[in-house]
Amino acid sequence: MPQFDITPVAVPKISTRFRRIRTKMPAPQSLPVLEEMRRYEPQSMQGMPPVVWKRGDGALVEDWWGNRWIDWSSGVLVTNAGHGRKPIVDAVVKQAKSGLLHSYLFPHKLRGKLARMLVERAPKTMDKCFLLSTGSEAVECAIKLCRTRGRQADPKKLIIVSFARGFHGRTLGAQQAGGIPGLKTWIGNLDPAFAQVEFPDGFRFKDTSFEVFEKQLAGAGVDPRLVCGVIMESYQGGGASFAPVDYMRKLRAWCDRNSALLVCDEVQAGFGRTGKYWAFEHYGVRPDFICCGKGISSSLPLSCLLGNHEVMDLYPPGSMTSTHSANPICCAAAIANLQLIDRERLVRNAAKMGERLFAGLAKLQQAHPTRIGAVHGKGLVAGVQCVKAGGEEPDGDLAFRVVDLCYKRGLLMFAPVGFGGATVKIAPPLVVNAAQLDESLAVLAEVFAEAV
Ligand SMILES: Cc1ncc(COP(=O)(O)O)c(C=O)c1O
Fold first, then answer.
1. Is the overall model pTM greater than 0.85, yes or no?
2. Whose alpha carbon is nearest atom 13 of ligand 1?
3. For the segment 302-335, what is each residue's pLDDT rounded down to a tens digit?
4. I want to staple 52 with a disulfide (CB 3.0 to 4.6 A). Which of 30, 67, 101, 109 is the partner?
5. Residue 26 per-residue DSSP state
6. Looking at residues 48-70, what average pLDDT do you find?
7. DSSP-derived secondary structure letter, 224
8. Up-side HSE of residue 296: CA atoms within 13 Å toward CB?
9. Closest atom of ligand 1 relative to the 174 alpha carbon
10. In which region does residue 188 sit, left (phi positive, over 0), alpha (psi from -120 to 50) or beta (all else)?
11. Are 419 and 167 in contact (CB under 8 A)?
């Protein structure tokens, strides 16, 4: 796996309306901070370009030494409403100053309000919201509730079906539902009640017909009646890839026929990212559960599971909880964020800016047809799939080089590492404007030409 070098190198100075590069990269003054982290943290924490963030403002991020980037990462798809937004900052400060920093399950005023706001934004069939802290926790809880319900019908009805190349988090259940073999080797004794089928992205797996789903389950000896839940990312995060609409409608019908619950993991897809409030809206199907996280607050750690009371109420009072569930400051941030997304019509902006982004990326692909195998995504999330010249073999080195060169020119993004793919992932905050997008696309074009 390539690693970001932290030896400062001279790079051309840049000063535009949005970007400013004044120092070597990384900034020499940042070395003590970077070295301290390298000394005391596991190396797994070194996956992002070595920029020491000072503050963010909308779609821009600054370091401490006068450099400024256009951010195409949203801090890994968190800051949907933009970095450092004042209404969120104000809500956080107000809550912190009130003197209530934590209450565990003791009621506080913001918890019910936030749960109601989230239910109001979900399909009508979902009338309950369980607030948690991380996306992985929301996924774990969905798995638990699918199995709990399934086993009430038949003790053997506990199979969870998920998709190759999927990612649902790094905890034990979430990682088993995930479809990246390299991330699961540590588990050793994989639970045989997790079954996996190919994700129909049409690129890494060509046959997008729903028959594959049924055939692969049959091939694995899975009795459909024993499947309690099917979990999928509404778009697959590693490559920003969507399934065909027809496939999803058939999947919904299959789940209904077999009394299995459909879980859409919207941890990175929700809250407007794809140009619709929820990414599953692109398919015209409704899941039974939505796992949320990341963009729910545009800032502090908060997640939730949305579903119907029949499953959400399976556990009695006090028996399905988490210590930091619905922390009051996180709730304040999330409420302000949801209001901001509505007030500023950020879902619409994501759809509109997305058209501009994908027009630019289509040109980039035309310029490098042998090195860009596909461009996937919708709205303000895109995956530029890098391949080795003339074939379809993923080229992780090229993706890494692009990200590395971009950060040295004032454009921040990431290539998901450890995912076995080779995607340059693009996900600016939903407040990004046309001028910022155009400038970023120009940088990407320049860098790609150099990196290939
Ligand atoms: C689709 C998806 N699900 C779940 C998770 C896990 O979320 P967290 O890192 O907050 O546990 C992620 C994180 O990247 C994700 O992208």
1. yes
2. 169
3. 999 999 999 999 999 999 999 999 999 999 999 9
4. 30
5. S
6. 98
7. G
8. 32
9. 4
10. left
11. yes
- Amino acid 179 reads G
Could you tell me if the CB of 95 is within 6 A of ligand 1?
Answer: no
> In this model, does residue 418 exceed pLDDT 70?
no
277: amino acid identity, one letter: Y
- Cis preceding-peptide flag for 301 (omega within 30 of 0): no
CA distance 205 to 129: 35
How does pLDDT run across 371-410, given as a tens digit for each residue? Answer: 999 999 999 999 999 999 989 999 999 999 999 999 999 9
- Ligand 1, residues 76, 79, 167: which to mutate, most atoms within 8 A of Cβ? 167
Phi-psi region at 82: left, alpha or beta (left = phi > 0; alpha = psi -120 to 50):
left
Q: Which amino acid is at 312?
A: M
In 3D, which of 269, 266, 273, 331 has the Cα closest to residue 131?
Answer: 331
Strand stretches in 324-404, DSSP E: 372-378, 381-386
Domains of the chain: 14-81+345-451 (3.90.1150.10), 87-343 (3.40.640.10)
Residue 168 beta carbon below 6 angstroms from any ligand 1 atom: yes
